[in-house]
Structures are given as C-alpha cells and as structure tokens.
Amino acid sequence: MSASLPPPPPGLPPPPQALLKPLARLLRPLVRLMIRSGVTFPVIADLLRGLYVDVATRDLLVDPKAQTDSRISLLTGVHRKEIRRLRTEAPVAEGVPEVVTLGSQIIARWLAAPPYADAGGRPRALPRAARDAGEASFEGLVESVTKDVRARAVLDDWLDQGIVSLDREGRVHLSQAAFIPRPGGQEQLFYFARNLHDHIAAASANVATSGPAPFLDRSMHYDRLRPETVAQLEATAREAAQQLLTDVNRIALAMAEADDEAVAAGEPGIPSRRINLGVYVYVEDDPIDEETAP
C-alpha cells in the first residue's frame, strides 16, 4: 500500500492568458491584506521569486539530473544568477506551532470523546478536577492529551483568551471563542495559511485534471438579496457548518485513536496522510450597477 496519494489523471493546465484574470481576482484580497500589513511589492516579489524556484525544483523537476539552473530558469523566467542565490538560502521552516497542536487536540476531544461531550457532540461543563473516581474533569481532559503541560496553565491561558468560562459552581465551559483564534495571533495565522493553501491546492488539482475532479470543492451563492435575508442565511450557514464539523470530528477522533493503536501495535506498512475539511461563508455588497443606480 503506497503512502502517497495517486496523481490525478493527466491533463493540460489552463494556458497563461486564461489563468491571469482569475488569478487577479484570487490575489486581490491577499494584496489588500499585504498592503495593510506593510508588506511592500519588492518584498513579495522576492518571496514569489524564491517560491517559483523552490516549486520548480521540488515539485516539477523530480529528476535530480534535471534540476539545473538553466532548466529552472527556462521554466520560471527567473535569471540564473538569482536562482543560484536562492538555492543557497536556508528553506523556511513549515512546522506546526505547538500552541496550535495542543489546543486543537484538547478541544477536539472535548467535542467528541464521550466522557467530555454528550451524545449530540456538545461539550459538557467540566469540574476543574475529578471529585470522584472516573468523573470527567478539565484536568483529566488535558492529561488525556498531554502530561507535559499542567491543566491549570491551560485553564488560565484559556480564561484570558475567552476560550473557556467558569460558572458559579466552578465548572469549566467551552465557549464559542474556542473555534475562533485570536485575530493576528500565531494560531490564526497558521490556520490562515493552511486552510487557504489546502483550498487552493484542491481547486488547482481539479482545474489541472482531465478526468473527474479529485477533490470536493463546492459552494452555494446568491446575489441581489436584501441585507436581512443575507443575515438570516449567514446565521443558518454558520450553524449548519458548525454541526457538520462537530459530527465529522466525532467520527475522525474515533478513527484517529484506532490508527494510533495500530501504529503502537507495530502494524507494518501503514501510510501517513492528513485530511482537512473546511467551510467558509463570505458576504459583501453587490457592485453598483451604474445603469440602474439613482
């Protein structure tokens, strides 16, 4: 059993001129964010230059003998002098921040594991520590994921962030903020990059294949609606999306624990893959029609 995903059926990617217009729309919100964040054009141009060289080298020219400066320059349009400079620079680390993995694992268990969630996938209110043997508690929840970090440290940090709250009885409640990382924080920027990367990767693979689309990429969209109608649809979509993620998370957690047991038992030949299920809702005003505008 191979550890790598089978490649999509071979097909011709869109020609450059056909791709430029959708690329301009795709990049517009990113350019807006970069300008607001102070990322100037020379900075992003150098970043793109390095990405062109890295992608051509690692993803397209898989034969090491073909990874010459001349071949890379032909593919990318980057000058050979720049290629030599870029290939000597250290690659950027792409590891997952520890704060992301720990927090997401704890919340995933709280939403899915039977001692900590009810049958509907709703997180239970947990006492800080177990009062009786076998009682589910926040301390037990954290220790079921890691014993390297004290539950009190996690609780204090999450209280500061608004991820959890305490009731009059001192029980810990998971709040809606658990699903929304702090704006501009390490967690939000990690998910910003990973989720957009995976969505674009799935859509790009679908565009470049000649057979059935290998990945799911669907959306529902309406325009010319009243603001109050859009507000109702947005609320409905948020609720439905959260329920979808909760339901799939409960199934995924059980499967992941079974896979961990299989790996611990030493079963050979088990591949390692990842899956990312994402949903999004976007709302904006329709562009003004100059012909019908008052």
Give a short overview:
With 294 residues, the protein is mostly helical. 52% of the residues lie in helices and 2% in strands. It has helices at 16-36, 41-60, 69-76, 80-88, 98-112, 138-145, 151-161, 186-208, 227-264; strands at 164-166, 172-174.
Explain how this protein is built.
- With 294 residues, the protein is mostly helical.
- The protein contains nine helices and two strands, in the order H-H-H-H-H-H-H-E-E-H-H.
- A two-stranded antiparallel ribbon has the order 1-2.
- A hairpin with a 5-residue loop joins strand 1 (164-166) and strand 2 (172-174).
- Helix 5 packs across helix 9 (227-264).
- It is globular, with a radius of gyration of 24 Å.
- The N and C termini lie far apart (65 Å).
Key attributes of the depicted protein:
294 residues; mainly alpha; two-stranded antiparallel sheet; 2 strands; 52% helix; 2% strand; globular
